[in-house]
C-alpha cells in the first residue's frame, strides 16, 4: 500500500482566495465499489487545476459530480458559489464541460452544432452567427464547417467539442482528459488553446493521465489514487515530496565497475547494468564536487547522466499500489537538466 | 426568462435538431413506411376477396374490405413509426451530446419534448403518405363531413402522442438501439391483434379479450365510425381515455428514467 497521505502544502493558512470549485469530503460509490472516498478540493478562480491519476482512479467521476451530471453520495461541492446538489442550474449557467467522449452531434454539421449551442444559450440569431463564425475560425474548423461532425478526425472533433463548450462564455471549464487519443501536434495545439483560455481569466479544471501535461499547464496538481487525494501542490512541491535525484554512472568494463563500486562504498549498485547511483539534487555545485571526488579516486565512467525527480517519480511513488513496479522506468537515463 | 418560455424555447430548439436529423436521413423515416404499405397492398389485393367474403358472409367485395382495412393500417403506421422513435431515442442517449445537454442550464425535459413533437409530426406525415397510397388504390370516405375528418385526424394525432411517449420510455430504458427496436415491437404487434383486419365478433372466443381490451381496437373503431359512418358507441370515449392514460404513463415513466443519473 502507498504511504498515507503525504503532507500537502499550506491550504488553510489564512487568506482564502475566492474559490471557483471547492469540495469537502466528496464521496461516491457505484454498487459496493467506492470510487471517490472523501475528496477535499479548493481551486482558486482563474487558475488551472489538474487532477492526475491512473485509469479508474475516479477522475471522470469527480468531473461528473462537479458538472452536475451525477449526484454525490456524500460530502459537499460548490462550483461558482452554487451548491451542485441544491442549485444545479446555477452551476450549469457558469460552467462548460468537455467530457472524455466527444459530446458533439455527429449527424449534423460542425456549424449546426455550434448554432445549436448558441440557441440553447439563448443568444439572438445574429449573435449566434457571430459567435459561431468566430469560434470556427479560432479553432480552424471553417473548412469543415459544412460537413457532418461524424466525418471529423479525432483532433477536429475535440476542437469542435471545445468550441461548443465556449459558446456560452463559461467562467469555469471542465476538461476531462482533453488530449487522450490525440497525436502530438494536436496535443500541443490543445495545450495552446488551454493556455489562451486561462489568459482570459477562465478557471480550468483538467483531468489527465499525462504527467507532462499537468506539469505544462497546471498551477496546482492533485494526485488522485483509489478515490483519495494522495498529494496536492504545485508541480515543484510535488517533486520535492519524494527523493529520487541522483547521478548515474555506467561502466562498460566489469572490472572498472567493480573497482569503482568498492571505492564508492555508499552508492546504490546495479550489478546487472554495471551502473552506480550517487544521490544528488542535480545542482552545479554538487555535480562539481562529485566529479572532483571521482577524479581523486581515479574513476572514469563511460556514461554519466543526471536524473532529477520528475512527476513520473511522484506519480509512481504515490500510486504504486495500482501500478506495477516503477523501477524499470525510474532507472531510465534522463537528459541532464 | 420564465419557466414556460424557457421550456418552449429550448424544446423548439431540440425539435429543430430532431427535424434536421430526419431531413438529413430521410431513409430512416421512409423505411418505416414499408411495412404498413406492404400490409395494405397484401390484404387489399391478395387476401381482400376472401376476407370480405368471410366477414360479410356474402360475395367478395374488395372495395368494401379496403374501406374496412384502412383505419387499422393507419394505426399500424403510427405504431411502426413510434418504434423508429424508440430506436432513435435509445441511439441518441448513447451520444455524448446528451451528457452535454445535461450540464447546460436548459429546460431539463426539452430533449424529450423535442423527440416527442418531432415523432408526432413524423407519425402524421407517415399517415398522410400511407393514406395517399390507400386513396390511390381506391379508398374513399365520401360520407364523412369536415368535422368528422378533423376529429379523425385529431384522434390519430392523439394516438401518435400517447404511443410516442410510451416509445420514448422504451427507448430510454433500453441499453442500445437494437434492444430498443425489440422492446418496442409490441407497438407494431398490438395493432395486428386488434380489429384492424377482422371484426372482434369474427374472432374465436378465447382471443376476443386480447383484441377488445387494448388501445388499438377502440381507436380503430372510432376512426372507422368517423370516416365510414359505422357505429362508434362507447369506443370514442374509450379511445380518448386510453390515449390520455398512456400519455400520462409514458410521460411520467420517461421523465423518471431521464431524471436518473446517467451511467
TrEMBL record, chain B:
The chain crosses the membrane at residues 25-48, 68-91, 112-137, 149-172, 184-207, 236-254. Its main location: membrane. The keyword Membrane applies. Pfam families: ABC2_membrane. Residues 27-261 form the ABC transmembrane type-2 domain. Coiled coil: none annotated. InterPro entries: ABC2_TM (IPR013525), ABC2_TM_bact-type (IPR047817), ABC_2_transport (IPR000412), Nod_factor_ABC_transporter (IPR051784). Keywords: Antibiotic resistance, Cell membrane, Membrane, Transmembrane, Transmembrane helix, Transport. One of its GO terms (biological process) is response to antibiotic. It is found in: Cell membrane; Membrane. One of its GO terms (molecular function) is ABC-type transporter activity. GO terms for cellular component: ATP-binding cassette (ABC) transporter complex. It comes from the Bacteria. It is a multi-pass membrane protein. PANTHER family: NODULATION PROTEIN J (PTHR43229). Belongs to the ABC-2 integral membrane protein family. This is Transport permease protein. It comes from Streptomyces cyaneochromogenes.
Amino acid at each position: 500500500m502507498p504511504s498515507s497521505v503525504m503532507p500537502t502544502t499550506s491550504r488553510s493558512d489564512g487568506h482564502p482566495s475566492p474559490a471557483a470549485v471547492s469540495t469537502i469530503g466528496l464521496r461516491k460509490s457505484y454498487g459496493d465499489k467506492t470510487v471517490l472516498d472523501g475528496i477535499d478540493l479548493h481551486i482558486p478562480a482563474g487558475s488551472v487545476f489538474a487532477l492526475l491519476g491512473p485509469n479508474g482512479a475516479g477522475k471522470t467521476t469527480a468531473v461528473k459530480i462537479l458538472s452536475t451530471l451525477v449526484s454525490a453520495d456524500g460530502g459537499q461541492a460548490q462550483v461558482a458559489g452554487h451548491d451542485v446538489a441544491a442549485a444545479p442550474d446555477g452551476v450549469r449557467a457558469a460552467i462548460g464541460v468537455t467530457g472524455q467522449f466527444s459530446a458533439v452531434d455527429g449527424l449534423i454539421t460542425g456549424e449546426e452544432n455550434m448554432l445549436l449551442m448558441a440557441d440553447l444559450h439563448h443568444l439572438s440569431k445574429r449573435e449566434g452567427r457571430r459567435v459561431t463564425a468566430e469560434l470556427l475560425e479560432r479553432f480552424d474548423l471553417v473548412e469543415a464547417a459544412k460537413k457532418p461532425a461524424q466525418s471529423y478526425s479525432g483532433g477536429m472533433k475535440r476542437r469542435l467539442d471545445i468550441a461548443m463548450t465556449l459558446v456560452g462564455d463559461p467562467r469555469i471549464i471542465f476538461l476531462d482528459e482533453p488530449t487522450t487519443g490525440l497525436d502530438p501536434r494536436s496535443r500541443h495545439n490543445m495545450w495552446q488553446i488551454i493556455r489562451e483560455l486561462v489568459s482570459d481569466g477562465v478557471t480550468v479544471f483538467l483531468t489527465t493521465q499525462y504527467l507532462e501535461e499537468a506539469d505544462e499547464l497546471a498551477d496546482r496538481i492533485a494526485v488522485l489514487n483509489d478515490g483519495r487525494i494522495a498529494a496536492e501542490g504545485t508541480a515543484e512541491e510535488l517533486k520535492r515530496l519524494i527523493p529520487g535525484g541522483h547521478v548515474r554512472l555506467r561502466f562498460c568494463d566489469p572490472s572498472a565497475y567493480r573497482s569503482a563500486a568498492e571505492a564508492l562504498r555508499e552508492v546504490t549498485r546495479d550489478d546487472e547494468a554495471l551502473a552506480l547511483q550517487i544521490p544528488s539534487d542535480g545542482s552545479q555545485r554538487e555535480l562539481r564536487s562529485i566529479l572532483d571526488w571521482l577524479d581523486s579516486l581515479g574513476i572514469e565512467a563511460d556514461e554519466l547522466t543526471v536524473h532529477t525527480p520528475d512527476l513520473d517519480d511522484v506519480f509512481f511513488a504515490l500510486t504504486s499500489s495500482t501500478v506495477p513496479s516503477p523501477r524499470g522506468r525510474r532507472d531510465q537515463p534522463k537528459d541532464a537538466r | 426568462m420564465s419557466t414556460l418560455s424557457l421550456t418552449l424555447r429550448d424544446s423548439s430548439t431540440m425539435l429543430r435538431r430532431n427535424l434536421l436529423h430526419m431531413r438529413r436521413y430521410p431513409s430512416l423515416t421512409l423505411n418505416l413506411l414499408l411495412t404498413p404499405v406492404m400490409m395494405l397492398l397484401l390484404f387489399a389485393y391478395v387476401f381482400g376477396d376472401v376476407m370480405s367474403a368471410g366477414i360479410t358472409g356474402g360475395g367478395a367485395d374488395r372495395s368494401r374490405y379496403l374501406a374496412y382495412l384502412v383505419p387499422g393500417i393507419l394505426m399500424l403506421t403510427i405504431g411502426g413509426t413510434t418504434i423508429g422513435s424508440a430506436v432513435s431515442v435509445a441511439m441518441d442517449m448513447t451520444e455524448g451530446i446528451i451528457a452535454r445537454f445535461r450540464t447546460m442550464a436548459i429546460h431539463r425535459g426539452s430533449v424529450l419534448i423535442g423527440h416527442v413533437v418531432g415523432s408526432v409530426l413524423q407519425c402524421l406525415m407517415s399517415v398522410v403518405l400511407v393514406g395517399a397510397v390507400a386513396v390511390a388504390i381506391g379508398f374513399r370516405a365520401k360520407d364523412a363531413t369536415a368535422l368528422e375528418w378533423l376529429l379523425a385526424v385529431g384522434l390519430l394525432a392523439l394516438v401518435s402522442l400517447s404511443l410516442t411517449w410510451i416509445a420514448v420510455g422504451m427507448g430510454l430504458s433500453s441499453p442500445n438501439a437494437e434492444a430498443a427496436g425489440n422492446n418496442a415491437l409490441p407497438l407494431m404487434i398490438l395493432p395486428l391483434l386488434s380489429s384492424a383486419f377482422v371484426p372482434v365478433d369474427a374472432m374465436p372466443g378465447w382471443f376476443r379479450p386480447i383484441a377488445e381490451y387494448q388501445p388499438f381496437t377502440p381507436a380503430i373503431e372510432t376512426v372507422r365510425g368517423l370516416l365510414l359512418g359505422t357505429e362508434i358507441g362507447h369506443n370514442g370515449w374509450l379511445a380518448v381515455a386510453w390515449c390520455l392514460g398512456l400519455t400520462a404513463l409514458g410521460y411520467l415513466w420517461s421523465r423518471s428514467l431521464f431524471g436518473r443519473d446517467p451511467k
